[in-house]
Write a structure and sequence with these properties.
single chain; alpha+beta; GMP Synthetase, Chain A, domain 3; three-stranded mixed sheet; 22% strand
Length: 111
């Protein structure tokens, strides 16, 4: 399988997870959640889903726990939306790219 297929499937998984969040978890999580991207394993059996939340660190921890609690339901929704032979295992991670970019910008300013 090629990298292009991994990217296409990852984008479809990202869209399905975001749709689930909008439909089912929008009112139960504090802050604003964005599913930034999803990376697929080469065999398409594991999806690593990165999300960003705009809020305090307490909100991030609460949202992460909520996503882990709803993992099986999110996975079921992905299975309904994305036509694959196997529904991939979902692993959620906080995307800290924005914080890292801000930190690097501050370091560059200080230099």
């Amino acid at each position: 399988m090629g990298i292009a297929r991994q990217k296409r499937v990852g984008e479809a998984i990202r869209a399905a997870v975001a749709e689930y969040l909008i439909l089912n978890l929008a009112n139960s999580t504090p802050g604003f959640i964005t599913v930034s991207h999803a990376r697929m394993s080469p065999d398409l059996k594991i999806a690593t889903v990165y999300f960003t939340i705009y809020g305090s660190t307490v909100d991030v921890a609460f949202t992460f726990k909520t996503l882990e609690k709803h993992n099986s339901r999110v996975r079921y929704h992905v299975g309904q939306e994305v036509p694959l032979k196997y529904v991939p295992e979902l692993r959620f991670f906080v995307d800290d790219t924005l914080e890292y970019t801000d930190k690097m910008n501050q370091v560059m300013k200080d230099i």
